[in-house]
User: Fold these one by one.
Assistant:
Number 1:
Amino acid sequence: MDAVPLSWYLLLSAVLFALGAAGFMFRRNLITVFMSIELMLNAVNLTFIALASRLGQVDGQVFAFFVMVVAAAEAAVGLAIILVVFRNRGTLQVDELDSLKN
Amino acid sequence: MAIAIFLIFAALAVFCGLNVVLRRHPIASALWLIGVMVSLAVLYGLLGAHFLAAAQVIVYAGAIMVLFVMVIMLVNAAPERRSAASRMAQALGFPVLAGLLAALGYVAWRAAPRAVVVTARKGTAHDVGSALFTTYLLPFEIVSLLVLIAILGAVVLTYKEKH
């Protein structure tokens, strides 16, 4: 049976992480920036699971599971903050949310 | 066979990821992000991590993305506008990103040469469950507390006081 080289998984993970970082830097909508963070977390999870599978250990998968749970908690609190920001400011453009600057 | 499945779903994940970053409307980004998560779930299954493949679909593509779509609907988000600051970010950001991708790719290539292959041996729900409830029992309980605090925090943050 043919198998996939480990480095392919790591490269895919690197590409997805870079895409997430690009979205985080270039997008101007608070929700989209938040989704880019989720994309980066997913890329890291892929690395954890690929290496866990390569090493024949289950610990990496447990870490990926914890990352998933923390991401769920983060999404709940982050989206609540986004809702409050929108309620108070009426916008989600990140460059209009600059009241800490002045 | 495994290589074909990997190539198909890796390409799908990258394509969906590109659309997440490039689409201007948040709801389009959210729906493409579901595509990324489902194709990653297939790759997890290919790696033998069956439990995490299921959890990826249920927790990420299900619960978290539904939350995102709900919030996008609640704030009635419009397509985002470009601004001067984002053009500056593009000028500075692309070299930084290219450097990051090159560094990550180089490390991935060096750390794991072509000859090394991924072999799935452990990772069924039974294996993950027994690790989770023996070695990692304390972190598991702490993380359940974290989720409880997050729920309470979300409720407190969005609670509207009646005047």
Number 2:
Amino acid sequence: MTFVTKSALNITSLERAVSSPRRGAVCSFVGTVRSLHAGRRVNAVSYDCFVPLAEKELSRIAKRAQSRFPVRVAISHRIGRLKVGAASVAIAAGSVHRAEAFEACRFVIEEIKRTVPVWKKEHYAGGDGRWLPGCALHKKL
Amino acid sequence: MKRKIELYGRLRDAGLGSSLVLDLPAHTSAREALSALKPSFGPLLTGCVLASDDAVLSPNDVLPRTGRLALLPPVCGG
């Protein structure tokens, strides 16, 4: 299960999607909007996204994680304007033992930051805003 | 052929809105399309790539004839 949404993220549904009686570990990662960045007070962050490619890339990341680790992975990424404290990305990984679930969550979030077409604009307390720098995309061969 | 190119992230603040239309010859490569976009974006184009709704295009890829086309700056999701 991988998707982009404008709605609040539901980590419980992701955890349920990767759980099974045979898996003894479910590890979740939730990224949230923080109130301070590079010394500036942040009121909100807007997430822009090229949705069709982002959803395909999230699916590819989940497949890569599942081929690399013995896990089941679910991912959702929120878009739109989010206030401080709101969850922007949620990942759940289920596995027989805990080590693979932790590793898979770390792998997935690092891949999201590197390859999914999402952009963040921080909105500051002073009323101004700034698009954050990022990682240039390249075609996967 | 006229192709609509969607704009994302910092490119939305270039004063061109959320998309633009380019008149390009058939069989235009991504590299040639990026060159045609240079006058509109200047240094903002650094690190940008063209993408279909299925994949990032390499410089030598010919633009797909159908489907969505987007100009994507460096990403920072999560």
